[in-house]
Every structure is written in structure tokens, then in C-alpha cells.
Amino acid sequence: MGLSKKRDLTQVELITKRPIEDERRIPFDTAEPPPEVIRVIQEQGLSQNKIEGWVAVPAINPPLERISRRKIETRGRVDAVQLLESLLNEPVLEGTLRTIDVLNGCGHHCDTCLADAALPSKMFTVESLDRLFSDERFLNMLQFDSLRIGSSGDILDHPQASEIIKMMLEKTTSIDRKNLSKEGKHHKIKIFTNYRPNLERQLDELIQMAQENPDRIRLTISLPFNRKDTVNKAFVEYAQEREGLIGKHNIDDQGNFKGRISFGEKAGLKNIGIQDVRHPMVLFMTGRILSDEVNAGRVPEWDKVEVDRETSFEDRGFSKTYLNADALWLMVYATPYESHTGRVFTPLSPDNVKAFSHLPYHSDFPTPSNWPGGKAMSMSHQEARRLRSEMANSGKPMKNTVVVG
Ligand code: SF4
Is the distance from the beta carbon of residue 320 to the nearest atom of ligand 1 less than 6 Å? Predict the structure, then answer.
């Protein structure tokens, strides 16, 4: 599907957030669960009031305007143990969790964002995260091969980011040892952060930690695709001042930087990658995206990007869990017809977790041992193609958040 499909989007939402009238509720209508999930809800007899709502973005009552970090630090403190306490003894959750954000949104607010991240209003306290990671019940909840930090948020929005990573590294030593003896591989902490000039000192700390722990840490530094390339230009200067950060593919025979950093670029440093999202292969056609006019030819292959990719259909209904400072969420993969972020979320609770565990767990990751839904099976390409054209022809609007002007 090319340009015409993009221009035919029937439901284009401008980037404005609606006011939330009822402070106690998440708006129910930002995403809808795919049919596979509805089937489980019905089979397991879950009533609507046992489900808190379905949202495209994992945030409860996100602020309508940016609030200061100082305010978040003082008024938005969340005790991680308290938030999770009611689910820590739940056996079906054993070995399920592999993705965490330490805030409930993202202060970086890139113009394009696969997660269409909300602005943050809360953050976990370091002290409570330390208690959580000291709790065997929580460690049992983690997947044994890796832990990803950064999905709908950025660790560097937390003032004690490097302290948190250091703590996570230490507290997961037992998981690392187990994985090493069982699978012959280290447990990895995978950090995803988006470069910002005002956070260079903190990024330096992460880079140093990654260099000191090459077997345990993988660091991906992303560069945003914004209306203006100011941040990207600042990164090039930053990277050029740090030896080995720019990979050899981007250096010419004379040792000079060639120009733009390409997508998926391996930095010169072993376990650090640089990801410039100004590339059509990146998933920026869901979530928050730039209009054709704002792109204005900067990504020349833009017109070839497919909005509803086949993989979205192949993986529809796959589930996993995700923790941020608002909730432990059930994250279900969806298509752009159900959610503009390609994922739908609902908070997990003792009342709904058993029923939701009958959903298949995402096949790209280890299948948790007590998860009755088992490992998800991808739909065949053929079946996915058929479903995709059915949806395209059904007249159902494709959802999207388009940033204009
Ligand atoms: S792309 Fe990443 S850093 Fe940027 S707003 Fe989204 S979650 Fe935050």
C-alpha cells in the first residue's frame, strides 16, 4: 500500500488530548480489544466491571499539559511494592514480566512515537524499586532472559536513572546466574533511551555502565524523527566527541563522519546501538506520526511505508505484561484498526489476571511456565494477508494520530 492509502485514512486525529471528565476512570474508547481477546473475555465470563478499560496508551488520567519534573518528584511519587502488592503472589504471573518503565509516560515527547506516549505525572521512588527488586516474589515474576527498560517512557526522565539501573543489575544477579547455567547466556538489561542534549551527562553514565558490563547491559540510543532535526544534529556533535560511538560504517576513509547515522547502526562500542528513526523501516507509521506535509520529503522512501503491516495481523491477540508507575498492564498486540499504537492495554488486577492468562503469550519471548494461554502461534502470511484485505475493505476506519504543522 502506498501514498494513496495513507491519504485515504478515514480517521485522522490531530494531536490534542481530550479533557477527562471523570477523574476516576480511564476513557474506554481509545482502543478496542481484538476479537481474540473478546473471545477470552466471553469464555472466561469476565464482566465489563472486572476490566478497567482498554487504552491505546498505558496511562491512567494522563496530564493534559506538561508538568514540571519537580512536581512529579514531589507529588507523583509511587511506591512500586504497594502498586504491585496484590499481584505479587499470583502464580500465573511467574516469568511473565520483561518490560518496565519507571514513570507513567514520557517527558521526551518526540513528535513521532510508536507508543504515542502520554506526558508523565508519576514516577517510582528508587527506594521502593529497591524493595521490589529485593522481593523474591517479584524476581519470580521477571522473565529469565532479559528485562527491557523503555517502552512507553524513557529512563532518563527519572532523576536517579543510573542508580536504578545499577540496582537492577545487582538485584538480578541470581537470575543471571540461573540463566547462565541453564541456557548458557547472561540475563540482559536492555535499555532504550532517546538522546536529548540536556541529558548528555546522564547518557554518559549509561554508556559507561554499558561499557563496564558488556555481558549484562545492552544500550540502544534512539534519535527522534521530529518536525525539526535539531536533536539529531546535536547528537552527531555529541557522538563525534566520544570515541567509538559512531560505528565505522558511518566514517569515510579519511576518518570523517559521512553524514546521517543510518537506522540500526552498530556503534563502535560492542553492546551499544544507535537507532535513527528517520527511516521508513522503523515502526513509526503507528502511534504518533508526521503528516506527509511535515515529512516534506525528508524520508524519501516515506510513500512506500505500509500503514497496516502484515505482521500486525500475524501477531494480533498476542499478549504480555508491562509495568509502569500507573499499573501492571496486560499488553495485547492489535492492528491499526483497533488501536493507533498497534497495541491495547488494560490494567491487571487479582479479579481479571487469571482470565487474561488464557490469552496466548507473545511467541518472540520465553513462554511463562504457569501461563495457561501458552505460546502464541503466528498466523500464516496468507491468512494475515486475507485478514488484512478484509479489514481494509470492511470500511472500518484505521486509527492514527497525525502530527501536523
Ligand atoms: S519515542 Fe520514546 S522517547 Fe520519544 S516520546 Fe516516545 S517513548 Fe518517549
Answer: no
Smallest CA separation from ligand 1 atom 5, residue: 109
Which grid cell is 226? Answer: 521530529
Cα–Cα distance, 205 to 45 (Å, whole number): 49
Burial 171-210 (b: 16+ CB within 10 A, else e): bbeebbeebeeeeeebbbbbbbbbbbeebeebbebbbebb
66: amino acid identity, one letter: R
What SS3 state is found at 232?
helix
Q: List Cα–Cα distances, 268 to 55, 201, 245, 273, 346, in angstroms.
A: 39, 20, 5, 9, 40
- Verify whether ligand 1 is closer than 6 Å to residue 108 (CB atom): yes
CA distance 66 to 61: 13
Q: What b/e readout covers 282-304, taking b as 16+ CB neighbours within 10 angstroms?
A: bbbbbbbbbbeebbeeebeebee
pLDDT tens, position by position, 11-31? 233 333 333 344 444 455 689
Question: Three cell numbers at 139?
Answer: 524476581
CB of 283 within 6 A of ligand 1: the answer is no
DSSP tag of 265: E
CB 106 within 8 A of CB 118: yes
Name the residue ranges covered by the structural domains of the chain.
3-403
Provide the β-strand partners of residue 123. Answer: 77, 103
Q: What are phi and psi of 160, to 5 degrees?
A: -115, 40
The closest-lying atom of ligand 1 relative to the alpha carbon of residue 106 is 8
Spatial distance between the Cα atoms of 362 and 374, rounded to a whole number of angstroms: 9
Q: How do residues 123-173 score in pLDDT, each as one tens digit? A: 999 999 999 999 999 999 999 999 999 999 999 999 999 999 999 999 999
pTM: 0.90
Nearest partner of 218 among 279, 160, 165, judged by Cα: 165
Instruction: Say if strands 343-347 and 328-333 run parallel, antiparallel, or are unpaired.
Output: antiparallel
DSSP secondary structure string for all residues of 108-145: S--SSBTT-PPPP--EE-HHHHHHHHT-HHHHHHB-SS
| CA distances from residue 146 to 161, 168, 180, 217, 221 in whole angstroms, order as listed | 18, 11, 12, 10, 18
CA 137 to ligand 1 centroid distance, Å? 30
Nearest atom within ligand 1 for CA of residue 287: 6
